[in-house]
Amino acid sequence: MPQLIASVEGVEVKHVYLEKDRTTLGRKPHNDIVFNNMVVSGEHCAFELKGIADVYIEDLASTNGTYINGQMIKSRQKLKDRDIIAIGNFRIEFLTASVHEKPAAHEETSAMSLSSLDALGLPGTSGQLRASLKILSGASEGLEVPLVKAVTTFGQPGVAVVSISHRRDGYYVAHMGGSQASTLNGKTVGAGAVLLADHDVLELADMALEFWLKPK
After folding, report:
1. What's the confidence (pLDDT) of residue 86?
2. Are strands 54-59 and 45-50 parallel, antiparallel or unpaired?
3. 73 CB contacts (<8 Å, ≥6 apart)?
4. Per residue in 104-128, pLDDT tens?
5. pLDDT category of residue 216 using cuts at 50, 70 and 90
């Protein structure tokens, strides 16, 4: 099914599958997709699903506008695969069902099992801690991105990309690709997964991220 992948300066902050006939995005909590940022209007834009995979976007008279591939939209517009929607400093990539499908049921079950074990706080799990990355540089400095998925990727494709995986004994980072090396506390990150510690600093190209662990 169609999906939206939202990022800020290359850091993925939200991944949404468009399952409803109408999905709203805005700053107010009643929206289906909530971006708690002042550049986003209370009710900013809406996505309409027609049939299986046709998606239309409409700006809801927002203050700062909605842009597709750099152009402000003036009316309801059909989205094409890999269109980039810009709202303030948020970048939202639209993908059709034919490119990336929703994870298989057994994959979701595995992730749920992992979360269930962690929630119990058993020895060897990180269930009593909430993990996040804090952006240390750029226009989004200070933004905190929670790590809520089993595997999350960060960075800019072709430049520097890493994955952070949630395992029973903690969070691990590994380099996935790109022309520039990624570093962890000044040391190059390779393809082999490395355990992250509280306040470790990741550097991806010109972006620095601090890994945090906090009590839930």
Report:
1. 93
2. antiparallel
3. 57, 58, 59, 65, 66, 67
4. 444 443 343 333 334 433 334 444 5
5. low
Higher pLDDT, 149 or 43: 43
Token duo for residue 32: 């289906």
Q: What is the DSSP string of the chain?
A: --EEEEEETTEEEEEEE--SSEEEEESSTTSSEE--STTS-TT-EEEEEETTTEEEEEE-S-SS--EETTEE--S-EE--TT-EEEETTEEEEEE-TTTSPPPPHHHHHHHHHHHHHHHHT-TT--TTEEEEEEE-SSTTTT-EEE--SSEEEEEETTTEEEEEEEETTEEEEEEEE-SS-EEETTEE--SS-EE--TT-EEEETTEEEEEEEEE-
Token output for 179: 């022309």
Pairing verdict, β 33-34 and 170-177: unpaired
Which candidate, 17, 9, 11, places its Cα nearest to that of 163? 11
